[in-house]
Structures are given as structure tokens and as C-alpha cells.
Amino acid sequence: MPKGAGQQREMRVRILAYADRLSARPGEAVEIKASCDGPVRYEAELVRIVQGDINPDGPGYREDAVDVDLGGPFEGRLQPIHTGSYGIVEDNEAFRDLSTFTAFAAIWPTMPGEGPQTIIARRDPHTGAGFELFLNDSGVLEFSVAASAAVASSVSTEVPLQAQRWYLVVATLSAPDGRMTVTQHRLPPHPLPAPVATMTREGWASAVPTDVAAPLTVAARPAADRPAERHFNGRLERPSLYASVLSLDGMIARLEVGSGSTGDDDLVAAWDFSIDISSHRMVDVSHRRLDGGLVNLPTRGVTGRHGNADAFCWRQTPERYAAIHFHDDDLYDAGWETDFALEIPNGLRSGLYAVRLHADDDEFYVPLAVLPPRDGPKAAAAFLLPTASYMAYANNRIALDVPETEIVIGRLLEHNKHNLFMQEHPELGLCFYDVHNDGSGVFYSSRLRPVVDMQPKIVGALGGTGSNLWQFNADTHILGWLEHCGERFDVITDEDLHREGLSLLENYRVVLTGSHPEYHSAAMLDALEAFVHRGGRFMYLGGNGFYWRISFHPTLPGVIECRKSEVGIRAFAPLPGEFFASFTGEYTGLWRRNGRPPNRLVGVGMVSQGFDVSAPYRRTQASRDARAAFIFEGVDDEIIGDFGLSGGGAAGLELDAVDHALGTPEHALVLASSERHTDVYLMTPEDILDPVPGLGGTEADIIRSDMVFFETPGGGAVFSTGSIAWAGSMAWNGYNNHVAAITANVLRRFIAPEPFSFPGATAE
Amino acid sequence: MSRYRISEADKVYAAEFKRNLDAGDWFHSPGLQRVLNAMRGGPSAGKYVLVVDEPFRRWSLGKTPGKRGDPIEIVPGHRFHSLKEAEWEVFKLRWRQHTGETLSL
User: How far apart are CA A194 and CA A184, in angstroms?
Assistant: First the structure.
């Protein structure tokens, strides 16, 4: 279809899929959910992902077929994704025959005037019967009542609501005459008086609906062809329903009523969002207890109309967090039906696999880490697949929505088939690098949806010149190198680590990270620290690791929260008072600001980022220390990594350096450092206390990667590269290079059982 | 959004950019970096991007719509067989956008 003077490129992704889990052990089942937009049949096979880079200058794409019959061919069918959060309360006798009622809520709209948006409704989508209080296309409050689609009446306040201001919004209906009113009343705390503080309009319903069978919904209304429509964008507090017509003062008084004190005879239901904030329930405080559910994870633990400068944590003052922020682009679980289930065969070696779905030229990979049997033999080394970081970046729109991305990559953005598809399909959902349609930050990211950029063969945006890989596919440079080394290894995931803790790690001698393990929960960090302190050996083969604190939901699978409070490199800043995770009540933000800088675990911490070209390291005198001799065995070069597939060097993209004040161990050897980066590289905000000129890569000494080694008291050791680009250099020249050799030297010594001596320790 | 206004006086940086492209030098002078920041920043709507025709081999020129859900538009008449070629072509297009003049060195 032509558009303007130009044309559009026909590049559809016609198969999408996801699984109910990212990892499994032999004997466990994995459910595959697929959607086909075109293909009527598709095939599926299990493959082991060895190396996912399709760059002709790279080591060569490789996947190995696995002899497992998944069944099929399978019938292709379209399974849609419905974004948008809302609350729903199942139909109840208390709602029936309400011919006289008051429905109200406090709202803080963020996108008034951008499409109709329901505030509270009880409406049969098939007959149109029921009522709805909503913002209409003009952002004006409107109340409609209908006995059927053909017999409908409405009344509106005529004055559009202002964005990001609190209002009491009210609808009343009184039988038998059918008088209906709609009221908007500006609420504090905005300090300036509203131009129109209160406005009420009245009208007459031509017919009062009776005997309507429908749920009550908040922030959307049920639809005939999808679960819900007309999603509200903004914050909403204490939706309430009374079986009488209340005065404005009466409603304001009832807004103030706390939970548990609502012994009002006419009260049908009132939902208090300050209760059970970690859940996806909306709790009714009336004696009927008409609790509802929340769909697609609207944002909780956000300040309501009583939020103020004294409120910092929802756990301490929940009454100030009585609002929920709904978005029309929220998505938790695409909710697709299962196409087929795969049982992991006994005897299948641990590794990174994928279910490849394909039809003609279309294909989609659903990644799956196969763990070794829980009680079976383990390899000496485990690769910790950073699935939390994959979720944090899932379907990220950095290259599509962020205008400055071209500046930080230092060259034109390249959009491939998958980028074009994501641009046209925002229903694939958002992640921590995006903002919602209303500009508010995205706090939750789920894997229960197709994740286009978590596949092999995918080319990214931030991976530097060359192969330009990021996260999942960049990590296959490490997996391909492991395969090339011939060392046996297992694959485990972040989610397993969060769930199982140290017990997942304690049978391994070595744990290796991915190229950018940025997001960790407290349980994950606890387990890694315990592993290292008990003699485990840790190879941190990446950059900007252990940076953000995340929270897994305590009951909902496959979703994490990250609020990015205070400071850090981030796409948005949460509002004041909203720094605590709604899932767990944990303080969020940088691990550094949570008292656990990455330097304590791996000796280095994030100092800079830039995504054009990478640099080599220069060895230091410390690299000649006898303690490090094993690392450089067979490597005589002074300059390390002046080549690579991720920016042409081993030190690049995101850089970590030592900082003893942040916890780098005193005895850590800085083996090599990068020396010169372009001015696309800048210092991180958390290190800039007083902005002065000279913060770029050609001037600021802090902007460098430090390669570090240190021993731990339990006979263990840590090796850190402090660079995302390291993996891209390992894969250079078919893994035949000194970066790969150094990494292999470390791996082989770390696998060896002989304990490392802690410097200065006195032998007994 | 940059407040810097690219002018005739920046031709020296255009020449530097061409030299750096040819030499594969990514270290730009502060003056050239300022010009590039002005060209590469700004709103997403109408921004030039490359659309991959064949990975690592062939590209077309596109423009981003600035709105989620809308397609990326192909700009007819621009096909590239190297990223270097694409960078210089887009630099010249943007020079004209910013100055109203055709870049001649």
C-alpha cells in the first residue's frame, strides 16, 4: 500500500510463538503456543542452538537437529494478542435490577481526548444493555444508559477533563422517572484552583435497563469480539457502587472512608486498591466482598490522590497508594491456547535448545534451556543463561521509539524484517526500555508472549559494528565458543536460580555468565554470592552486569518488575514515592544504590556505554603476576582484543571498571584495561555528581573496561572481562584468537579442583 | 533536540566525515560530532533509517513514522550495497534538510 510519496515493505512475520516456560529438566513438559497469520499448516522440530550469528564474517550459524518427534504437521491458526489492563467483577445478584444507583471513582486521566475510555461499566456487549461512565472522544465525561443498543440515552459534562489532574467522576440513575446525572468534581491535591471545579449535567433515560447479565468492569468495558475494549489510561481510585442517589458531599465523604468502615446500607460494593497491592485482585470492602480480578497487570503501588511528599513506601502508608495505573498497552499473558506439548526426553544433554516452527520461508524459534536431571550427574561448568535480562529487553523498541538511539550507536539504524514487524505490531508488548502510550514508565515485563528478539539469527541495534548482536543472540557467541572448546557444560537460567538458589549451583565448579547479565533479584544475587564465597569459580564474561534490582512476582509466573528508582541509565524515571516494587515491596533501582554494587561480586561495575566501535585492552604489569600466569599462558601480546564481531574490539558497548570504594577487593588484579573510546561513550549518570565538560570516551579516564582476576577465601576465584563486546571477540576467526584462548585458559583452570590460595592467607 | 544550526561554516566537518568514512575512523572531532548530533537527534517522525534487504549485504532507505503501529516508509530511489555508501548519502540528504543547500565539497 503506498503511503505519501514512499512505499511500504512487505515483510511480515507470519508465525509467532512462545512457551509456558523457558527451562525444563528431562521428563518435564513444555507447552508451545503458536499463532499463524497465513500458513495453514506448520512443522515443528527441536534443535540445539550452537551459534546464532548469521554475519557472513562470523563463525557460521549452527543449529543441530535433535531426533525427537514433536508430532505435526500442525494446523496453523491465528491467536490474537489483546493488550490493555482492566478490572472485572463477575456478575452478581447485587448488580441486578439496580434501577437507582450511584457509580463513582476518583480518576487521574493521562490521555483524555484520545479515544473513548471507560471508567466503570456494567454492560452486555451483545445487546448493548447496561450503563457506562466514560471519557468520550473529546475527553468529556459521559454517562450512558441503554436498555438495548437501539434504546440508549446519554448525558455529558461538556468540559474536557485535564490530563494528570484528580477528579471525582460520578454517574447517577434514579427510577422510575429515569433521571440521570453526570458530575465531574476537581479534587485536591493540585495547588491551583480548577477553572471549573464542579460540573453536573442531567438528562433522562428513555428506558432503564433491567435484567442485564454482565460483569462489572473498571477501566474498560466488555466487548463482543475480544475480552475488553475502550481501555482507560491513567490512575483510578476507589470505584464504588451505591443503590441510591448520593449527594456530592456524600460521595466525597465516602471517598475518604477507609477500608473496613463501610457499613453503609446502600453500599453495593467499593473496591479499595490500597489493599493487597502485590496481588492482581481488586478487593471489595463492602460486606458482600465482591472481589474482582485485574487483567494484564495494571501498575500498582502507585500514589493516589493522597500521595504526597511524606509518602515513600506503599508498605508503610498503603492508604496513600490507593490508586491503580491502567494502560491500554499493558500485557501480562497473551493467553494463547497450547498447540502441542513437548516432553524433554531423558538423556537429552543439557544445553540451549529451541523449538523451531516453520512453514515455507517463515520460521520462529521458541528458546528453551534444558537443565540436567535434578539428581543426575552435572558438568563441571554451568552457563547461566540470563533470562531475566532477556525478559527486561523483550521486544524492546529502543531502535524504533527512542530518537537518540542513532546518536549512541554512531551510525544509521538498520531495520530488518523483525524490526519492521515490531513497529507495526505494538501489541507484542513492552519492556523496561519502553514507556507506555501515555508516557509513563513500564514497570513489568513478561515472557508469556512471543518475544521476537529472543531468537537465534536476530540482528540487534546496540551490538556495535559487525554482527550487531544483543542479549540472547550475542550469548550464542559464548555458547559457540564452549562447543568449540569441547568442554562439557550445562545450561541453567536466571529463573531457575531465583527459584532454587544456591542448590542449583553448588554442584558446579564454574559458573559462566552471558554477555550482559544486567538484571538480578535478591535471591539470585544471594545465590551467586554464596557460590563464590564457598569456593565456586565465577567467569563474568560480560559488561554492565548485576546493575538493576528486579522482583519476580510471588505467585504469577513469568513476569518481573523493575522500577529504576533514583538514578541509572534508564528510559524513564518513576514518580516520587514510587520506588518500591509492587510485587514484593522491595526497594528497587540500582544494586549499587541497594548497598550491593557489582564490584563486590565481580570486582568491576558499570561505568559507560556506547554502541559504535569497541576498543582493545592493553595488558598491565599486574598481568605478569604469578597469580595470573595461567590466564595468559600461550598469549604474549600486549594488546588484547583488537578485533571482534561486536564493534571490532573486545572492550566495548557497555564497560565496567574497578572501584575500590564500591567494593572491588583489594587484592584484585587488574590484568588489562581499554584505553580509548569514542565520544559516543559517556559516563553513567550515577557517577556524574557535578556535570562538567570532559565526560566522553576520549577524555574521561573512568571510561574503560578493566579485566580483573581475584581469589576468594574458600578456594574459589573470579575472572571478569567488564565488557559486553568480549564475547564478539571470542567468536572472531572461528574462535581461533587470543581472546578465546585467554577465556579457555581461565575455564580450564577454574574447572580444575585445586583450590586457589587467597593472597595473604596463612597456611596452617 | 539540538539547538545547533548547521551552516556553511560546517563544510569543513562534512569533509572530515567523508574522510573518516573512507578511512574507517570513528573518532570524530568535537565539531563534527556536534554536526552529527544535530543530524541524528530530533524526533522519530521522518527520521532516515536503513531497511535491510539482505542482511549484511543490501539496504534501502526508509523513514520512521514516529507513531507506534504505523509502518516504516520506503524512500524510493535509494539502494545501498555498503553501510559507508549509505552513511554518506544520508549525510548529504540531511545537509540539504538542515541548510537548504546541496552539499558540495
Answer: 11
